[in-house]
User: What shape does this take?
Amino acid sequence: MKKTIVLAIFCMLSSFLHAQSYKKIHNKAILVDTHNDILEQCINKHFTFDKDLKGKAQTDLARFKQGGVDVQLFSVWCDGHEKQPYALANIEMDTLDNVVKRNPDKIVKAADSKALYKAVKQHKIVALFGVEGGHMIENDLNKLDTFFKRGVRYMTLTWNNSTTWATSAFEETHDSILKAKNQPKGLNDFGKQVVKKMNALGMLIDISHVGEQTFWDVIQTTTKPVIASHSSVYSICPVSRNLKDEQIKAVAKNGGVIQVNFYSGFLDSTFDKRSALFEAKHKAEKDSLKKINPEPYFFQEFLFAKYPDEVKNLRPPLSLLIEHIDYIVKLVGVDYVGLGSDFDGISSSPQELDDVTSYPLITKALLEKGYSKKDVTKILGGNFLRVLKANE
Assistant: This one.
């Protein structure tokens, strides 16, 4: 009986110490997430993320702190149909700037790595921007200067829509769209000027969303390390938004970093098929929503929010996200992978990763997988910070 009690106490103590250990490592590391879409949610739903948004969004200022987030790159996004994308981009940036002004003791913007590290030491969240879609510069290189001065530290060259100077993964995959526009794949001369201008500014080139030809043109043009701000592994989940092995190797050779996306459809190769069955069950509602907005993310987000109990079983396990990270590490090494959640821009994430408070579970899972404290620190943010500094 005594042995049983002692064993139970030992197990409880071991469990407690393990929990304390991973939380200590997590809190000591600089956690960087390179893609969060809360600004677009704030615009569309009239939120402000320095208020409590539990049950409304995956993100708010207090929950950032709970999740141990030190540096957040906020996505500035609109789709290719927006008539004045540059103006909208600035409105989204105003949204963040207003939060920073109201909460200077909690969140700040940093112009460079030196200021970033100083703010982190002061236990403040560092906020930077990532413009998601080159269409937002409206074919004007001068607008890159304005973006950079406002705190934009990367630009995704395309979203799903191509620009006139770079083709997207979506349109390269559905090349009938490009043929109808008589547009060749990849970067044109102006696109290469954009890359060179970004190199000169110190703005990171983001190859998430770009087509394969655009990717290879970027690799041949850039003089600085690139990032994939929110992409996962094609070999595990073969969708056009993910990176193939040769692309992953090229990013590593370039000295860049791949920030793994949390979206279920980019992690789980069976997710789209299972989601299609779910959508077929709710076809009438889906058809009505498509009349409002034909983009799949729109009706999927609505239906997923309306039927959470059905959707729960669609979500892949957290271990699958770790598998994507592990795949990149085994292919090219631990120095070339990080986290780009896409929170508040995705309709489904892995089980347990419900919102921005969930990041410690990734640290726990990586440690249980056998990763060292040093390697976990690199994955959580160290690798991205290296690339950011290399671009300055």
Q: What stands out?
A: The longest helix spans residues 2-28. Confidence is low (pLDDT under 50) at residues 6-17. The longest strand covers residues 69-77. The chain is about 55% helix and 10% strand.
